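Our preliminary data section would be incomplete without showing what the modeling component actually yields. Below, a chain of 182 amino acids is followed by its predicted structure, encoded as tokens that our downstream tools consume directly.
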Amino acid sequence: MLRSLLLVVLVAAGTAAAAEGWLQNYRKTDPPAPAPDAAFTGPDGGEITLARFGGKLVVLNFWATWCAPCRREMPSLDRLQGELGGDRLEVVALSIDRGGAERVDPFFEQHGIARLKRYLDPGNAVGRALNIRVLPTTVLVDAAGRETGRLEGPAEWDAPEIVAFLRDQLSGADSGALPPPK
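Predicted structure:
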């Protein structure tokens, strides 16, 4: 219960920080750290790990239907998956809702989320393994399965500067942190 309360407080704090300049919240992981092998539920209901996405850049977003900033950024994650998702990049929107599919499926339907697949971690095993403190948090996992950076707080994931940054990551360029907002 205390952890949930702390998470809600941190969500609010993350929202305030995001309003002041969300791009400054991106932190490069140096050196890159191996992604955890904690299991979560894939779209077909089976258990998977991040290793399943080996060879792809993974935009791993931790979210919940009760998190207002998460709800606002989901359409941009859906558009990002439509624009860059495929053989080389996957947006994995990992819901930590305790209600699982019964909460996430109606949310996806009501908000027109059509390109993202449903990934569930109601026990927050992956979030704990990655020390996720704020919702939303997005972790970039490179094609070798290593965390290369993270953004605490919401973002417009299909904004031109973020798409350009992700394209650089796909090309192997190390552009460091995202550029400051214009």
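Confidence is low (pLDDT under 50) at residues 1-20, 178-182. The longest strand covers residues 26-34. Preliminary results of this kind motivate Aim 1 of the renewal.
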